[in-house]
Amino acid sequence: MLLPIGRKTTLKKLPWFTSGLIIINFYVYLNTYPAENKFENFSQSASELVLFLTNNESGLAAATQALLLKERKEANFPTARADEIIQSIHEGKKELSPIPMVKTKWNYLYNNYMTLKTKYGFIPGGYQSVFMKYGFSSKSGVFPNILTYQFLHNGFLHIFFNMFFLWLVGCNIEERWGPIIFL
Predict the structure, then answer these.
(1) Per-residue pLDDT tens over the stretch 155-180
(2) Is the model's pLDDT at 21 over the cut of 70?
């Protein structure tokens, strides 16, 4: 990887718009990433639980398995309906296979799911991922997501290298084009 060492000339003035974009990006990152990370952990725990329940060894009825798989594809997974099914299994309203290994794995995955749900205070179906809501994808609308996706970053290295590159390139472009055209 090549990293620029310097430039032949110095900047004539501070690139305000480039600096402002970097500050806004870090502000959005610091305010969205912790909640998104918690949601990702909770969602992954729910997903592991659903994958276990939809396995043939679980002994869960085929119609319930199909419903869980459908709910897993929803943007705001884990949904209230998926949580309702999980709770009904826990309460014994829906039966799992009597094999001890199935019961042990169910208890482990269910306890992990409930711990994260309680710890973070998530209401299933009540939280949508920041990336799904403001990111740019085929499922989201074009506007305002065409603007908001630019400020979303999925980890420290992601934002660090994006902002590093923005500083290297943005300063030069802003100086040559002027701040209005650059923006």
Answers:
(1) 999 999 999 999 989 998 999 998 88
(2) yes
* HEC-encoded secondary structure of 104-140: HHHHHHHHHHHHHHHHHCCCCCCCCCHHHHHCCCCCC
Which residue bears the tokens 């032949």? 8
Alpha-carbon Rg for the chain, nearest whole angstrom, is 23
3-state DSSP assignment of residue 30: helix
User: Smallest Cα–Cα separation from 46: which of 92, 112, 98?
Assistant: 112
Mean model confidence pLDDT for the chain: 87
Residue 93 in tokens: 């309203």
29 vs 75, higher pLDDT:
29
22 and 166 in contact (C-beta within 8 Å)?
Answer: yes
Report whether the peptide linkage leading into residue 78 is cis, meaning its omega lies within 30 degrees of zero: yes
Asked if residue 83 lies in contact with residue 68, where contact means CB atoms within 8 angstroms, the answer is no
Residue 6 confidence (pLDDT) above 80: no
**Contact of 97 with 54, CB cutoff 8 Å:** no
Question: Which amino acid, residue 22?
Answer: I
